Amino acid sequence: MAFSDYQYEIYLNGLVGTPPPYSTSVAELERVARERLDPGPYWYVAGSAGTGATERANREAFDRRRIVPRMLRDVPVRDLGVELFGRTYPAPLALAPIGVQSIVHPDGELATARAAASLGIPTVLSTAASHTLEEVAEADGPRWYQLYWPHDDDVTLSLLDRAAKNGYDTLVVTLDTWTLAWRPHDLDHAYLPFLRGTGLAIPLSDPVFRAKLARPVEEDLDAAIMQWVPMFNGRPHTWDRLALLRDNWDGPIVLKGIQHVDDALRAADAGMDGVVVSNHGGRQIDGATASLDALPAIAAAVGDRLTVLFDSGIRTGSDIVKALALGARAVLLGRPYVWGLAAGGEEGVRHVVRGLLAELDLTLGLAGYSRLADLDPSALEEP
Ligand SMILES: Cc1cc2nc3c(=O)[nH]c(=O)nc-3n(C[C@H](O)[C@H](O)[C@H](O)COP(=O)(O)O)c2cc1C
Ligand SMILES: O=C(O)C(=O)c1ccccc1
């Protein structure tokens, strides 16, 4: 089945009086989520660092680039399949690690993982998830694990061990959020979900972490939270420390949050398999470069040494075309699927992902491309 079939499905259902259950516009889904959610959770997801300059720059960098379509080319069935780290996936898309998803829907990461699994798309489970690694693995789709890297090696190794045992085959190490940035919306609502225990399902269920607590989690949740927060938050790790992860993880390792060419090259030198060119959706450094602007130079510099993934600002199928044309092998989808989750749990996430991939498929064909591999900067206007 082609991803673009979702377009027919929606039109045909409309003919028999069943309009799509949720909007096909991400902006509209976000508007609905804003109406439904309390301001704290809504702004936690929607908001970003400082004045929002980098969040806007992320979008501006997409809007500034334009696809130049080619005509009269044979584009029968587009193949959106992609190989990442030796595995084949149906589309160049994974669901970005997003913590504390139960603040928008009680099923949280379970719903997200089930939706992704039903489409064969990888989900990247955050260390700050509201469900455990073991629970989310039951969705039984392709799964990657995102590490917020504790400053306690015993706990780190326990998390890696649990991830590997539960079938998470790719490790994504997020480097840009070793402490939370200045986020005015969250500060003004005094809203930090994990300080209430939300988003701590993974550490609180970790046997090695639990064994370090003076009193059981069940008896003193606050003390457990206060022990976890400084363990992963407050200071960065350094390049030399990557050896610990490389020595204790058999599968591919991807560094997330890379924006500088030299850091990407250093990741390759450290034996990493990939990078996610990302600025965390503008949630960390206000005034940082747009992630899409960082992408071309990184992709050119690393060549075949690393698999280059991209996130921060993907909202439409044509955004994916642009990111791939500028050198990404695949992209991570962030906030849009959270708006789907808020609207309709698993169904809502599936709707958003199917819509995005239908739009990617149609855009690719209309632009005259049948294979993702044929996309290069010549698909876009000169900057
Ligand atoms: C509410 C929220 C929570 C997030 N939590 C995590 C996380 O736990 N781990 C992580 O690596 N990135 C996290 N991110 C960043 C995303 O993985 C991704 O980089 C970002 O959402 C991309 O930007 P976009 O949503 O604007 O496209 C989070 C983003 C949001 C919006
Ligand atoms: O809010 C975030 O961007 C994020 O990455 C995070 C960090 C800690 C806990 C939950 C989410």
TrEMBL record:
PROSITE patterns associated with the record: FMN_HYDROXY_ACID_DH_1, FMN_HYDROXY_ACID_DH_2
Residue runs in coiled coils: none
InterPro entries xrefs: Aldolase_TIM, Alpha-hydoxy_acid_DH_FMN, FMN-dep_DH, FMN_HAD, FMN_hydac_DH_AS, LMO_FMN
Domain FMN hydroxy acid dehydrogenase: 18-383
A UniProt-annotated Pfam family: FMN_dh
Keyword set, alphabetical order: Oxidoreductase
Domain of life: Bacteria
Cofactor(s), by name: FMN
Gene3D superfamilies: Aldolase class I
Family under the similarity heading: Belongs to the FMN-dependent alpha-hydroxy acid dehydrogenase family.
Protein name in UniProt: Lactate 2-monooxygenase
